[in-house]
Amino acid sequence: MKIISLYVSLFIMLASFFCSPVDGQVTFKVLNTNTNPGSSATAVIEISHDSDIQGYQIAMTWDSGLLTFDELGTTGLEIELLLAPATIEFFTSTGSSELSPGIGWLACAAIFDFSPPFEGQMLPAGIGQSALWVRFNSADDPSLINSCTTIDLVNGLGQPPITNIVTSGGSSIIPDLTSGDVCFVSIPAFRRGDANADSVLNIADAIFLIQHFFLAGPSPSCNDAANSNGDASLDLGDVITVINYQFLNGTPPPPPFPSCGLSSNGQTELGCAFFNGC
Q1: Shared domain check, 167 and 75
Q2: Residue 146 pLDDT more than 50?
Q3: Would you call 234 helix, strand, or coil by DSSP?
Q4: Structural domain tally of the chain?
Q5: Domain of 218: which CATH number?
Q6: What's this model's pTM, rounded to 2 decimal places?
Q7: 171 and 123 within one domain
Q8: What is the mean pLDDT of the segment spanning 39-68?
Q9: Nearest C-alpha neighbor of 87 from the set 70, 112, 57, 59
Q10: Residue 123: Cβ-neighbour burial (10 angstroms; 0-12, 13-18, 19+)
Q11: What is d(CA 55, CA 115) in angstroms, rounded to the nearest whole number?
């Protein structure tokens, strides 16, 4: 199982910031999403909290017969915008593809101010802040269409046991937890940024869009793929995103990228008649 696992033991020692958990007004929620059987599925976890927080732990399980962990991160999510110009200074994860028969498990942790000069950066209070995405590969079984499987946020698994928490003012606060579903559908999967659907994102995709916008060139077969910055609008910003990523060390397109899949909410954003680049 491909899971980042850096300094896990150290974080577990620090995870509760030397404080016992207390109750608070905090929620963690897995957003529902869709995928095609055999494609990737990206689950986004939103957090709501009524005070500024110093970090979080998130732990979850899933049906390992239907979903296989691929990768996780925070790129492109609201948490990065809210912390800017600071960043998440410590991020680590651990897990098991088969914690028990049929059950996959993942836990991750983030500390926003972990390194000198310790300037006290925190995530401001807010509602529905996207804080983590987790990408899975789904079972390639067409009979799954019109069915769903659940990703559960869980406490107490792992050694030592890991609990979902946020930390505020040096205290670990236990959130209310809401699970989310991955439902299997039959809408086209696509690769974000691959406007010409040739299976790779490169300068040809920027040229394709420029020709479409300004030279009466052909329309994308999948507008969702052409929407490289994921803002649900097809415009010059998508050209700029491709060029910045290719040549200026810019931010990569949001999921589904680099693998094919569906958008983070599992629904079409701008329409996708077909996509031959997967």
Answers
A1: yes
A2: yes
A3: coil
A4: 2
A5: 1.10.1330.10
A6: 0.72
A7: yes
A8: 94
A9: 112
A10: buried
A11: 13
DSSP characters over 62-128: EETTTEEEEEEE-TTSHHHHHHTTS---EEEEEEEEEEETTEEEEEEEEESS-STT-----BPPEEE
Q: Which residues of 180-207 are buried (b: 16+ CB within 10 A; e: fewer)?
A: bbbbbbeebbbbbbbbbbeeebeeebbb
Same domain (yes/no): 191, 180: no
* Cβ-Cβ contacts under 8 Å for 35 (sequence gap 6 or more): 41, 138, 182, 183, 184, 185, 189, 261, 262, 266
Domain range for 266 is 187-278
% the chain with pLDDT above 70:
90
d(CA 264, CA 258): 13
Rg of the chain over Cα atoms, rounded to whole angstroms, equals 20
**CA dist., res. 55 & res. 74, Å (int):** 13
Q: Are residues 148 and 214 in the same domain?
A: no
Q: How far apart are CA 81 and CA 72, in angstroms?
A: 18
**Quick one: 139 and 51 in the same domain?**
yes
- Average pLDDT of the chain, as a whole number: 88
Contact (CB, 8 A) for 12 and 6: no
Residue-wise pLDDT tens digits, 184-232 = 988 888 899 999 999 989 999 999 999 999 998 999 999 999 999 989 8
Judgement on whether residues 62 and 169 belong to the same structural domain of the protein: yes
Torsion over CA: 262, 263, 265, 271 (sign): negative
The reply to whether 204 and 175 lie within a common domain is: no
Q: What are phi and psi of 35, to 5 degrees?
A: -155, 160
| Domain presence at residue 210 | yes
- Rounded CA separation 250/243 (Å): 8
Strands 90-100, 126-138: pairing is unpaired
